[in-house]
Amino acid sequence: MRRKRFGVSAALVAGSVAVAGLAFAPSAAAVTPQSATITANCGLYGGGSATLTATQTGTSATVTVSSSAITAPLALSEDSIQSTLTFVKASGGTTVFSGKENPAMAAGDGVTVGPLTGTVAAGDSLEAYGGSLKMVIFGITVTCTATGKQSPGPFVFE
Question: Which residues lie across from 98 on neighbouring strands?
Fold first, then answer.
């Protein structure tokens, strides 16, 4: 009889732990699409295709920008690029994401910055075209702008 009670108790504990685990699991990103591509022009520093990856948790959002076409001119240490990414809002105005996050890069490596953080509201629709990415590297500001709309479309936040 004790074995049956122990088995039932163990099953109840396991079930409770599983339910608690679901309650504390991270929520899915509410932004759609989660990834978009643009073609960027960085003036004297080159340009090409870049991927923007967005996540959202409530009113906090992050965007990471990565490109194999836009390359580091010299070796860069981790978290050495101050970046400001400005999106155009469909409702008017802009939304800014910023931060000093990047992996270490060797000269010639594709550039990755982020996650850059920003604040969004439910229903915000953000487009890179018309905005810019400013990166300060060794005191030199590199400004990249999208040459057309992002694909498959703007980021829409819940």
Answer: 84, 117
Q: What is the dihedral of CA 32, 62, 95, 81, to 10 degrees?
A: -140
Per-position DSSP letters for 51-93, written without gaps between them? EEEEEEETTEEEEEEEEEEEE-SS-B-TT--EEEEEEEETTSS
Domains of the chain: total: 1
Asked if residue 52 is part of any domain, the answer here is yes
CATH number at residue 127: 2.60.40
**Among candidates 51, 65, 67, 158, which has minimal Cα distance to 116?**
65
- Does a structural domain hold residue 23? no
pLDDT digits (tens, 9 = 90+) for 51-101: 999 999 999 999 999 999 888 889 999 999 999 999 999 999 999 999 999
pTM above the 0.90 mark?
Answer: no
Q: Is residue 19 part of a domain?
A: no
3-state secondary structure of 18: helix
